Amino acid sequence: MKLLKIFDKRENKRGHRPIIYRDSVRGIILKGTKILLVYSETNDEYKFPGGGAIDGEMKKETLKREVLEEVGKEVGSVNESLGYIDQIYNDIYDDKKYFYLRSYYYFCEVYDENFEQKLDNYEQDLKFVPKWVTLEEAIETNQRCFDNDSKYHWTERELFVLKLLKRMRPWEALRLQKDLKYLILNYQKEAQNIAQDMILNWLMI
């Protein structure tokens, strides 16, 4: 899996310090020209649905649980990985320790049915709501939040991924993929019809 970026936000780097490690998994959910994100009505910014893994949980299990909790959508399939981002900063609970967060990003698809969110207390305070938006809208909103010195560690990380997706133009790739599947399916049907005609003609000889 590809390392996309390292954000080292340690205020000082004096000698050895204990490091607290945590892995998290985040979903990239595309539909048409929009992306499903978590919107904070308190901060006016977007983040990718996802969160930290529970002990013993596989990445796909974490992703499915977090997406269901944060945006109320059931994941139908977990597809290829975009990569991962590492962040290291001073632990907010113990300034004698560092906190090392690794965020894995996966493309995934969700079912249409909506479920009730199950938010943690801090997520409720931030008033998290699911929202389908364009990449341009999300980038503009998060850029404004970042320029205003957002205090949250995810702001810069999510802005980086949003801009990366914009450069990748994933919707064009998805459209081409769907067109290819359509052509293959039609080709298979046409080939099957030709084969049936050949068999019928052979039986009639």
How would you portray this structure in words?
The protein has 2 domains: 3-168, Nucleoside Triphosphate Pyrophosphohydrolase (Alpha-Beta Complex), CATH 3.90.79.10; 169-205. Helix content is 40%, strand content 36%. It contains 5 helices and 8 strands, in the order βββββαββαβααα. It has helices at residues 59-71, 121-125, 135-147, 154-168, 170-204; strands at 3-8, 19-31, 34-40, 45-47, 50-52, 73-90, 98-114, 128-133. Strands 1, 2, 3, 4, 5, 6, 7 and 8 form an 8-stranded mixed β-sheet that branches. A hairpin with a 7-residue loop joins β6 (73-90) and β7. α3 packs antiparallel against α4. The protein is globular, with a radius of gyration of 22 Å. The N and C termini lie far apart (58 Å).
List its salient traits:
eight-stranded mixed beta sheet; 205 residues; 2 domains; 8 strands
